[in-house]
Amino acid sequence: MFDFQEELRRLPKEPGVYIMRDKNDGILYVGKAVNLHNRVRSYFRENIGRGPAIDRMVSLIARFEYIVTDSELEALVLENNLIKEHSPKYNTLLKDDKTYPYIKVSVGEDFPRISFSRSMKKDKSKYFGPYTSAAAVKDTIELLNKLYQLRTCNRVLPRDIGLERPCLNYHIRQCLAPCQGYVDREQYRKQVEGALSFLNGNYSPILKDLENKMKSAAESMEFEEAARYRDLYNSVRSVAQKQKITDSAGEDKDVIALYQDEREAVVQVFFVRDGKMIGREHYYMTNVSENDGAGILQEFVKQFYAGTPFIPRELMLQYEIEDLPLIEKWLSERRGSRVYLRVPKIGSKEKLVELAAQNAKLILSQDRERLKREEGRTIGAVKEIAEILGLAHVERMEAFDISNTNGFENVGSMVVYEKGRPKRSDYRKFRIRSVTGPDDYACMKEVLTRRFVHGMEESRQLREKELDKEFGSFTRFPDLLLMDGGKGQVNIALEVLEELRISIPVCGMVKDDNHRTRGLYYNNVELPIDTHSEGFKLITRIQDEAHRFAIEYHRSLRSKAQVRSLLDEIPGVGETRRKALMRHFKSLEEIGNASREELLKLPELNERTVDEILKFFRERREGKALEDMPFIDKGLPE
How far apart are the C-alpha atoms of 135 and 141, rounded to whole Å? Predict the structure, then answer.
C-alpha cells in the first residue's frame, strides 16, 4: 500500500520530474519542478484554488514517482519526452503526429544529389525546411534537377563510373551524366552550389542567367533551346512568387499565436525562412480549460520544438511565457546557437503575430461549426431517439441482422454505435450453428443468446480476477437494442433477455410496403418518427450497416464454399463432376430434363453416376416443382 505521508516527507528538495499514477498504474500527469518537495506536496493541500480538473486528477492519484535531475533544464527535457511518450490524460497535449518534409542535399558525396526527406539526420548532408507542403517540396526538387542537371540515381560515384550506360535523363538533357565521367567533380560541384544558392532564396542571379541564355538561344535561332530556358525561367519565377511575406532581415523565425475557447485551443504557426514565409500550419491543444493563453503557448513551444529537428533563430510569441529564459537556453542548446523568444509589441512583427491569432480564431470558428453539425448527426440524433422512446440515457446501441440464401449458410451480424458513431472494433459476426433452413427468428435467437452469454461470461472472469476494466466487445452491454424488424424480432430479443435475466430496452425498426423504415416499435406501440430528422437518418444508417456487414460475411462464406447447388446432394457427384455438368448445361432444369444419352456424352460421368442423377431428379420431380428446390442460384454460373 502506498504511504502518501511517508513518500511526501521523503521528497527531495531538488529539480526533477514527477509522475502521477492511478490505481491501474496508468499515468495521469507528468510535470517538472525546480523543487520536487514543494511542488508535489502542493497537490495534496486542501483549499488552494487549484480548479475542478486538478481536483479530479488528485482524487484519482493512487501513487506518484519522481526522477531527480541535475538542473531544471534537464527536467524540462525529460518532462517533454515523457509527455510525448505517454500522452497523460491531464496534461495539456499537442494533438499532432505529423512529420514535415525537408529538402536534402547530400553534400557529403563526391557527386551530391537532391532528395525528399521526412527527417533531419545528423549526417554530412544539408537540409532545407521544414515545409508544410510535400507537393511543393517535390515540385522544387524536380525543378532543381532540371535547372542544374543533377543526378537522381543511387549509383555510388566515383566507384561505379562507366559500369552502366547513362540513363534517359542524360539523353533528354536533365543530367550531366557524372556516372560516365562526362563531368568532373569540380564542374558538378558548381552546379550543386547553384542549387544551394537557390534553396537559400537567391533567385535573382538564376533568373538573370536564364533570361540571358533564352535570348542568346533565340538570337541564334535555336528556338527549341530557347523554349526550354523560357520554361525554366517561368518555373523559377513561379517558385519565387509563392513567398507571400518577406522580411528585409532575411532570418529564420516562427510566428506563434493562438485562440482558445472553453474546451480546446488552436495554435497557428507561420514558418518564415530566410525572411520569406514558406507556409503555415495549425495545431490543436486539449485540456486547456484551466490554462491561460501564456500557459497553453508555453506547453506548445515545449512539446512542438522537442519533436521538430529544425529550430529557427527566433520565435515570435503572442504572450510572455513563464519559463522564457529556461526555454531559450534549452532551444539554444538544441539548435547549437542562440535562439531568441520575443513578444513583439509594435510594428510589422506585432501585426504578423496578430495575423496568426486571427487565423487561429478563424480555424477554431470554422471547426466549431463543423463539429456542431457533426454533433447533430451523432450525439444529437441519439438524444432524439432517446426522447422518442422516453429513455433517460442512450450512448451505446447495438443492431443485429440475419443473412442467408434459402437457409444456406445462415449468418448473423452485430454492429455497434457509440454516441452516434460506428465502433467498428466492436463489430462481430456469427455463423449460425443450431438452425438449418430459412428461419430468421430462430437464427436471431441464437445470435442474441450467444452475444449476451458471452458477455456475462467475460464479466464473470473479470470479477474473479478483480479487474476494473473491459475486454472484448461483449463485456459492455448496450443501452438500446435495435432489431431489424417489427414486433416479431422485438419479441425474440425480449424472450432472450428475459431468459438471461437482463434488462435492456429493445426497439424494432418497422418498415413500410417498400421496405423503408416508417417508425419505431417499442413497448408494444408503433411510434412515428420524422423521416427528415437526424434521428431517423441515424436509424437508417445503423440498419444499412447491420445489413451490409451480414451480407459481406455471407458472401465471404459462399465464396469459400464456392457455389452450392442441388447437385451436391446427388451421390457420386463431387466437385469435378458438378463443374462438368455446370459447364455443359445452362441450368438445373436442363440437367433435370436431360436424357441418359445426353448425360453419358460427358466424359466425367460413368453409367452409375448418370443413373444416380436421373433417379435424383425423378424423385424430386414427383415430390415438388424444380423451381421450389432449395438451392442458391436458379441458374448456373458460366
Answer: 10
